[in-house]
Each structure stands twice: as C-alpha cells, then as structure tokens.
Design a protein that fits this description.
By secondary structure, this protein is mostly helical. The protein contains 11 helices and 5 strands; from the N terminus they run αβααββααββαααααα. It folds into 2 domains: 7-18 and 27-72, Winged helix-like DNA-binding domain superfamily/Winged helix DNA-binding domain (Arc Repressor Mutant, subunit A, Orthogonal Bundle); 77-244, Up-down Bundle (Four Helix Bundle (Hemerythrin (Met), subunit A)). It has helices spanning 7-23, 35-42, 46-58, 77-100, 104-119, 133-146, 153-165, 167-176, 183-195, 199-228, 231-244, and strands spanning 32-33, 62-65, 69-72, 123-124, 127-131. The protein has a 3-stranded antiparallel beta sheet.
Length: 245
C-alpha cells in the first residue's frame, strides 16, 4: 500500500512553490491566479491550492478579490517606498538587538555567510539580465546571520516577511539596471561593523544598502516612464524578460 503524505505537507509544498514563483516573477505581478491551472501544474488537490493561496493572501503576496478570485499582488513605486521604509526600521531594530547579544557562534555564521555570498555571482553566467537564485539564497542567509542573536521572535518574523516581499524588487533591480554595484564591498563594510559591535555604523550602512536597491529600481522605472509614459509597461517588459530567461 502506498502511503499518501499528510495534507498539511501537501499544502506546505504548494505554498512554498507558489510563493517561490511569485517572488521570482514567474507568476508576474498583477497576474490572475487560476486555481485549476495551479492545481494541474502542481499535481495536487484544489483544496491544497486554495489553502496555500489563502495563506499567501494573509502575508500580502496575493490579493483576493470578491467574485474574481486571486491575483498576484502588483508591484509599484509607492509599494516599494513603503516597503523600504518599513524594512529600514525593522531590520535596523533587529540588528541592534542582535549585536547586543552577539557571540562567537553568531560571528562565525556571519563571516561564513559573507564568504559564501562573495563566491556566488549575482547574475547567471552568460545572461547579465538574469538574477541568480543561488545568490538570492546566500543573500538571505547573510542578512539572517546579521540578526541571528535577536531574541525578539516577533520582530524577526516581521523582518523575514518584509525581506521576502522585497525579493521581487531585488529581481527587478538586477534586470532593470546594467551598471555594476559593488555589493561585496557593501556587505563587507556591514560585516566589519557588526563584528566590531558598532551598532550605529552597522545600522547606518544597512540603511544605505537597503535604500540603494530601492533607488535604482525607482530611477529605472522613472526613466522608462519618461519615454514610454508607463512605469508598469516597463516593469511588464522587464518581468517578461526575467521569465523568458
């Protein structure tokens, strides 16, 4: 007899797959999410898909519209600005809490995370417009290592949610900008300040680091808007290139 996995495991798998597709823009912002198509693509029950979408709705990744179903939350400059402001406040607060209790294990994790991040290219080799998913995972680990000693679990949960929501904009930042940014230097400076337990310098550098991504995406969309008359049109073309890559 073949044992079926528990229903909660199926729902969790559906949640993670759909969330990943949303963050990487494989499901494009504003796109209608058809439950039957998702069910067919994932090969699971409609009930599991609905539960996954309900969870993603509560987290702000999906919008539920009466009589219309679900669609991926859109991206916009206004949303990016709000997200950036919230991230700066929460990330810096978590970092201050973390540095107050930083120990050898936290230092080791941070140094290792920074080292790994430096060894992984931001863009896929041979495709300068394609974001490297492996880099994104290493980047997530680096920022998690910075706040690893924060004891406030609620703050950490909010930080994690905001960090995840910003993922689509990080993908857009790589695809919409061609000039190189010395991210290794930014990460090293933050690492050095954290290892020195210099909370003021570390949070100041982290603030600049977060805001720079926002600035680049906003400037790119504004530049495109002046020529095409539509920020969203440019974003749609960029996301289309991402998905094709």
């Amino acid at each position: 007899m073949v044992l079926k996995p528990p229903s909660d495991s199926i729902t969790e798998a559906a949640y993670r797959r759909i969330r990943s597709d949303l963050l990487s823009c494989r499901l494009r912002p504003g796109e209608k999410l058809r439950i039957s198509k998702l069910q067919a693509d994932l090969g699971i029950s409609l009930c599991a898909v609905r539960e996954a979408l309900a969870r993603l709705t509560s987290e702000g990744f999906v919008l539920a519209e009466p009589q219309k179903g679900f669609r991926a939350a859109p991206v916009s400059v206004a949303d990016l600005n709000d997200l950036t402001t919230a991230r700066v406040e929460i990330e810096c607060l978590c970092l201050r809490h973390s540095l107050a209790d930083y120990g050898v294990e936290s230092e080791t994790r941070l140094v290792a995370a920074n080292h790994r991040l430096k060894r992984i290219p931001l863009r896929l080799p041979g495709n300068p417009h394609q974001y490297n998913h492996e880099w994104d995972l290493a980047h997530d680990e680096f920022h998690s290592a910075l706040v690893a000693s924060c004891r406030n679990r609620t703050l950490l949960l909010v930080r994690e949610q905001l960090f995840a929501k910003s993922a689509r904009y990080r993908w857009l930042s790589v695809s919409m900008t061609s000039d190189e940014r010395d991210l290794d230097a930014e990460h090293k400076a933050i690492t050095d300040a954290a290892l020195d337990r210099d909370a003021d310098t570390a949070t100041a550098l982290l603030t600049i680091h977060i805001k720079e991504t926002s600035r680049r995406v906003t400037e790119s969309m504004d530049s495109a808007a002046s020529s095409s008359g539509s920020r969203s049109m440019h974003a749609d073309r960029t996301i289309g290139r991402l998905r094709a890559g």
